[in-house]
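My convention is simple: the sequence line spells out the residues, with the fold written below as integer tokens. I include a record here:
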Amino acid sequence: MTGCIAVVGAGQAGLQVALGLRALGYDGRVVLVGAEPELPYQRPPLSKGFLAGTVPVEELELRDASYLGEQRIELVLGRSVVEASVGDSGGELRLDDGTTLAFDGLALATGANARRLPVPGADLPGVLGLRSVADAERLRAGLADASDVVVVGGGFVGLEVAATARAQGKRVTVVEAADRLLARVAAAPFSAHVRAWHEAQGTTVLTGRTVAALAGSGRVGGVVLGDGHLLPADLVVAGVGAAPVTDLATALGLRVEHGIVTDPSGRTSHPRVVAVGDCTVQPHPHDPGRLLGVESVNNAVEQASAAAAVLLGLDPGPRGVPWFWSNQGELKLQLAGISDGHDTHVVRGDGQDGRLTVLYYRAGRLVAADVAGNPRDFNAVKDALARGCTIDPDAAVDTAVPLKTLVSAVREPASLA
């Protein structure tokens, strides 16, 4: 036994594993290895306050160095793992500076990389992605000098960047290949509500339009759409999703299927290794046999806390309700549960007062909700899901009735026996 647990990846999930180990009483070495030079930092402000210049870089830090020192968490920053091995009793990491680290247990929190645009011209100066604080600093500098900003991708990150850029007076166009915004995660009425808000701010939204190439000589000057139309652009932001970083997991022989396959508590196919956060895929909560990646702070924190318990041979306990938020300027979105796999939905409100709630059901049971501008609805749904309850879909349509008064126990179907 080495008396050491190594954590690879110093983001939110990796840090949470390290802190979780200490909280559970682990007294051995905890070594946190991160490829970026910064202390562990929060990523949600990168597309909002940090990008807008209202959140300074020092406020991004999740914990300061002195606190981590008190917790005896050893930081190895600016270093990457180039080789790893693991057996029945532990393993060893080799870093890019040639040093080695033996461990009893290993946590992989390797995160995800922003996808690049797969079109000609994607490497032109002025074409940027957003995943790290270094990306955000480049994007913030680019925004300062930009007039025409094109955001490719109508997901949460792309829309957050679009809102920030528009608030700075830039001409902003969002190009989305699907026929509506947030098509992968939200029902059509919620997509329409989000689109209406962005268009009311002056952002141009193009859906059902692909990007064929990025034009420019020496620097990006425009976006060529699939139909040949040219959009002027002196800054292009690729918001086309992220790919889980699985190279190390693959090298260790772990099960990988578009992400490191884990259970909800981060257990991988090797008993000495857990994996947490954006690099993982987990069992779908209400669609047996499917795996699902959950990119959210909530998932990173909860899965990492559970994984710390797993590493120590403790019961990780049950997971809470998944939830997520997105602030796009004054538009506040909150999501509870997993809507993927729903078979019907109910719309509550018309959005005219800025509030809209979409409730998602599977086999007659509430599984999730998307909420705009209505924290009471969000809290009611989150509470209902946490207690294993549901909400009457017919009664929920009436916005005069508080949603929390409609929470009820699930009626299981009568047995035929």
